[in-house]
Amino acid sequence: MTDELTALRKSIEEWIIEERNHVFKYTSPFISPYSFEAKAVFLEYDLATNKARNYNYNVASHSSYEYMDVKQLPVPTLNEFVVAKLKLHHNQIRKEYVKSRILNNFGTYDEGGEREDICFFDYSGETDHEVFKAWLLFEHIFELSTQLIIRIEAKNYIGIHSHLKLIDDNFGYLRDGKKSYFQLKMDEDELYSWLINEINSFKHQVELKGLWRSLSEEKEKHFQRVFEAVLSRVSELYNVDISPETSAGSGIMDFKFSQGNESKICVELKLSQNPSVLNGLIRQLEKYKESEKTDKGIYVVLDSGAPSTSFARLKSYVQELRKSGLSTEHIIFIDATEKPSASKL
To answer: 84 near 26, Cβ under 8 Å?
Structure first.
């Protein structure tokens, strides 16, 4: 590799790390709000919006403006401010800005002294070239950044952590392997919301991705093992401990999900044909929650299509809860009955 190509590869890698640090800085308010990086972002946001907020306050509080058509200035939310920082650099698309910064140092001039526009592929050479590989990494980090922006725009802050981990897994070696992504510490409410989402994702796998074939005619213990297999990987990713068949003092609960001693969720699984399927919700799960000193529990019922009087009573009970305006999001029914193939619909 020539000196120029070596310098180009190094420049690309340096900007990859710069982008990595940029992403971590501006996501820190959602991941680690008390960190130094987050405080810097909060201050930057405050300075950027201070003038507009003061103007709007004056307009709203002074009676002299009461009969005048004075419009208030737009003030972005923190979410909007962060998205803009991740997308743009002084109103230029950030990826294009970074690309231009890389290539501007490697431009050429024609005979008349005019600068010639160049593109990366002028330098890429063969597909196994070190520069080409570095540029693929450059493209990849911006792909991850785009996915991250989509999550932030949707206010799906819990999902941010997995993207930050992917970034450091892919690019950490450029920083001598140092990994400094923030471990997401969830309080009990956040852990509960996260787990509801993950179980609903499992429900989607069963109902729409064909996993029902492995569950519909199996015993309850098999249902528990499949559930554990699916949830264990994502739990490991989010630093959540999943404990199957945990003694709760009042019996053996199916699962306890936890992060430390402060965030605990009891989860009980039942098949629809289980004669105790109603009792499992109104008595069994409540006892487990009491033993674990938590008010958070999730009840998951797999409907295999087998008729059950107790299951019918459970569905009626849930309907009454809904009519009373009570939340039933913690009761998740999963349909594992046989599905017709798309060709027969």
So the answer is: no
Q: Return the structure tokens found at 269.
A: 């699984």
Q: What domain range includes position 42?
A: 3-175
Cα–Cα dist 136/130, whole Å: 10
Whether pTM exceeds 0.85: no
Residue 180 lies inside a defined structural domain of this protein: no
User: What confidence tier does 127 reach under pLDDT thresholds 50, 70, 90?
Assistant: very low
pLDDT one-digit tens code per residue, 45-58: 988 898 888 888 88
Which residues, 6 or more positions from 78, have their beta carbon under 8 angstroms from its beta carbon?
Answer: 29, 42, 45
pLDDT on residue 83: 95
The two structure tokens encoding residue 280: 């499992």
Partners of 264 in beta bridges: 258
Gap between the Cα atoms of 60 and 341, Å rounded? 61
Asked, for residue 76, whether it belongs to a domain, the answer is: yes
Residue whose token pair is 């680690």? 32
